[in-house]
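Worked example

This section walks through a single chain of length 181. The input is the sequence exactly as stored; nothing has been trimmed or padded.
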Amino acid sequence: MDLVTGTLILLGAGFLVANVRLLLDYMKFKRRARHALLTWPSPPLPFQSLTTALGFATGALVLVKVFLVHRQVFGETMMFVYFAGLLPLSRRIGRGFYDDGIWADTAFIPYTEVGGVTWRESEHAVSLIVISRLRNLARRLAVPLEHYGEARRLLREKIGHHEIQFGTGLDLGGHDERENA
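Given that input, the structure is written out below as tokens.
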């Protein structure tokens, strides 16, 4: 096996993992979609035209290699599936609030895993930062300005019903956790 073929197989394995992950996320979304409380479409990809061009280019490369060169196309096929199929499909996942959690820009976070929230407001955008209690990470959810008030109301409601608990140490009754939303 030459270096180029080995590299393409390695790239194909990486894209296979990414493809499976995107497909699983989309399947989870389809199961949760009917339990959406407040959602909005995903923002467009920053380099949408480049992504589309990569999809066309890898598709053309697969066709050339299969019909003209008669070589293996695992790596190229996995790239084509990613750029032309699953990445655009994943943009259909509604970001926002569901019965059992928050679908942030990159992942779904169940309410039971939320350890803290904070808002980052600027002149043109509002972002909800969700801090995980189980993992040492935070996820961002870009909230359109027209949904900002409803998103804050939903968060306060979830905190009030104790679906989101921050666990900030001793509860001496002096602080209403809904104020964190």
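What to look for: The beta strands are 36-40, 95-98, 101-103, 108-110, 114-121, 126-132, 138-143.
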